[in-house]
Design a protein that fits this description.
Layout: H1 23-36, E1 45-51, E2 57-63, E3 67-68, E4 71-77, H2 81-88, E5 91-98, E6 103-113, H3 116-125, H4 128-136, H5 146-159, E7 171-176, E8 180-185, E9 193-199, E10 205-210
Antiparallel strand pairs: 1-2, 1-5, 3-4, 4-7, 5-6, 6-7, 6-8, 8-9, 9-10
Helix pairs in contact: 4-5
Bound molecules: flavin mononucleotide.
Length: 212
């Protein structure tokens, strides 16, 4: 697939020599550009790495469902493998890769739960089928057959016929607070641009350009 060099995206180009003070401003620009680029499938998909209770790393793709100065949020089953990992090691690394724009952003930071109100609001925004399926799935636990999964879905669907599906207590959001954020813009012959933001105790970020 054809890649679009950065000069074709002047509106979202990041000046690596004079970057904005706040990494979330730069993130917003690239995130919006990825959504505007019709060639990028799932522009909000990010790989989130965690550390299992026994110290082993694991990674999976989830969808970024919101961000602000507090960090980036995703929603999941908190009793999943990633949920078990985050209970013991509440830190994560999230990586966006927009290949068509030759861009990558890596977030690292501590993880907290989104508020109950935020989890409720996102739960309520999902189609009924998704809510039933989320309730029926004990994410990351074994299940014998697809038929068993579908039977669990049917049982729940019938139990809540004509009613709202309540959000399970173990379903909700996680937010990664940006302590370290790194931007990568690909260039010809591998002479890429890299920039890292490191959060200081006063909340401001130190910006450092890195060699590719
Ligand atoms: C494009 C894409 C988007 C996904 N989005 C989510 C998501 O937002 N939340 C989620 O729990 N799982 C999502 N998944 C499934 C996860 O990758 C993963 O299989 C699941 O969360 C269980 O992960 P775990 O066993 O490491 O906890 C997505 C998968 C793909 C491929």
């Amino acid at each position: 697939m054809m890649k679009h060099p950065p000069h074709e995206h002047p509106a979202s180009a990041l000046d690596f020599d004079h970057p904005p003070a706040d990494p979330m401003d730069a993130f917003r620009r690239w995130f919006d550009a990825a959504h505007e680029a019709t060639t990028v499938p799932n522009p909000n998909a990010m790989s989130v790495a965690t550390v299992d209770p026994d110290g082993r790393p694991s990674v999976r793709v989830v969808l970024c469902r919101g961000f602000d100065a507090r960090g980036i949020a995703f929603y999941t089953n908190r009793e999943s493998r990633k949920g078990d990992a985050l209970r013991v090691h509440p830190r994560a690394c999230a990586n966006f890769h927009w290949d068509q724009l030759d861009r990558q952003i890596r977030f690292e930071g501590t993880v907290t739960h989104t508020s109950e109100a935020e989890s409720d609001a996102y739960w309520a925004s999902r189609p009924r089928e998704n809510r039933v399926n989320a309730c029926a799935s004990q994410q990351s636990r074994p299940i014998a057959t697809r038929a068993a999964l579908e039977a669990a879905v049917k049982e729940l669907d019938e139990r809540f016929a004509g009613q709202e599906i309540p959000r399970p207590a173990h379903w909700g959001g996680f937010r990664i607070a940006p302590e370290r954020v790194e931007f990568w813009q690909g260039h010809k012959h591998r002479l890429h641009d890299r920039l890292v933001y490191l959060r200081q105790d006063d909340g401001r970020y130190v910006r450092t350009r890195l060699c590719p």
